[in-house]
Description:
The structure holds 2 protein chains of 2 kinds.
Chain A: H1 11-20, H2 22-25, H3 28-40, H4 42-62, H5 70-79
Helix pairs in contact in A: 1-4
Chain B: H1 3-11, H2 17-35, H3 40-57, H4 67-85, H5 92-100, H6 123-133, H7 138-149, H8 154-161, H9 165-189
Amino acid sequence: MDEAMKMIPSCDDLARAVSDGSYDEGPWFDRLRLKLHMVSCWICRRYTAQIRWIDRASKSVWGEVPPAGADFKKRLLGRLGS
Amino acid sequence: MDDALRLKDLQARRPGAVEALIEEFASPLLAAARSWGLSLPDAEEAVQDALVDFLAALERFEGRSTLKTFLFGVLFNKCSERRRKAQREQATEDVEAAFDARFGLLGIWSSMPRGPEEEAVNDELKSWLSRCAEGLSVDQRAAFAMKAVEGRDTAEVCKILGVTSTNLGVLLFRARNKLRDCLEKKWMKR
Lengths: 82, 190
């Protein structure tokens, strides 16, 4: 997060932190200030809900990939010279 | 399996060592390459190339990360090479400018963020997401896939991508906002 972040972060600060992950993993005091802003700002709550939705939707689209087939493993073994 | 033991077995090419490596990692490597934006044939090629390079590099392995992290790092480099050949990415400045334009004085929203919020993920939205993800660079997509989809630890993702945690934040910021902006446009046209 920007070191110049004010005591009460702006919407810009909060939206950045939500999308770069520092809202969830940053220093606790920064997270506390961001959460205080979130409580009072419905537009930021909406933006955050959208980012969370994108994460969840992406999990359902890309989260389950079928395992590698026996044929592919056989080709790998052939290539790796075992 | 213990890393030191596996390393010894692979370096000595003990019988069964490569088979065990393939059995354990073929599926997760293939899944990673697919989630980083490669087609199935390209992903299979990238996994093969990565394993060849990984085995060749084991003599020089210094143990600064786990073998698994090192292996995924090699795969990331292979995927980057392949994706660069067929790049259709949006310019990075676009997403920064679009983000900044959403805020007015004092960093307050000047335009409402529209788009899906709580909607069930149906086939239409899945195809939107897949098409929107084509606009991400391979490092943005890999960062997003490993953090948001797979939930990997930040330090591990940084090692695989070869970036600092600050750079990882920038990649995630750009990936999520490119996806959000693209979905918003599709949503508004609905």
